[in-house]
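Researcher: Good morning. I'm working through a list of sequences from a screen, and I'd like to move beyond sequence-only analysis. For each chain I'm collecting a predicted structure so we can compare shapes side by side. This is the next one on the list. No need for commentary yet; just the structure.
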Amino acid sequence: LVTSASLPPSDLPGLDPKWSKIVTAPDADGVQHEWHVLDTAPAQPVGTVLCVHGNPTWSFLYRKMVPGLAGAARVICPDYFGFGRSDKPVDPDWYTFDRHYGSILALVEELALEKITVVVQDWGGPIGLAWAGRHPERVHSLAILNTIAHRPPGKVKLPLPLHLFRARAINPFF
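Model: Good morning. C-alpha cells for this chain:
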C-alpha cells in the first residue's frame, strides 16, 4: 500500500511550479512508484546537478539554489519515497538505506542522467555518495554539504585544527 505522489501547492514561496513534476520510476525492488521531482530540464544542458536531500526535508530545501543553477545545467531534486510529495509506502519496514539508495539509482537510470554534479545534504550524504562511489563514470563533481560520512574502525587521529579546537585551553565549552 502506498499514499500517492502529488504536486505541491502552486503558491509555495520560492518554489517555481513549472519545475515540479511527477515521474514514474521503479523503486529498489523494481516496483513502479511516482516520484515528485524538481526538474529544470533546459533544452541543451551542459550537465546535471542532482540534489539529494536529508531527513526530514524534501526538494523544497533547494528552492533558493535551483534558480541560480538552472541556466547552466539541468537541476534534478527528487523527494525520496516517503518524503515530500513522492509516494509514501505505508509499511515502516520499507524504509531502509538500501531501498533509498536503490531508488535513487533507478531514478538516475530512468532519467538517463549523465555528467552529474551530486549535491548531498544530511542523510543525502550516505545515499548520494554511495551512488557516486559506485558510478564514477557518470559523476562530474561532488558538492558535499552538512552530512555524515562513515568513520573508519579504530582510533582516528584528529587533524591539528580539530585537536586544538577540542583543547580546553582554547575552547572551554568543549
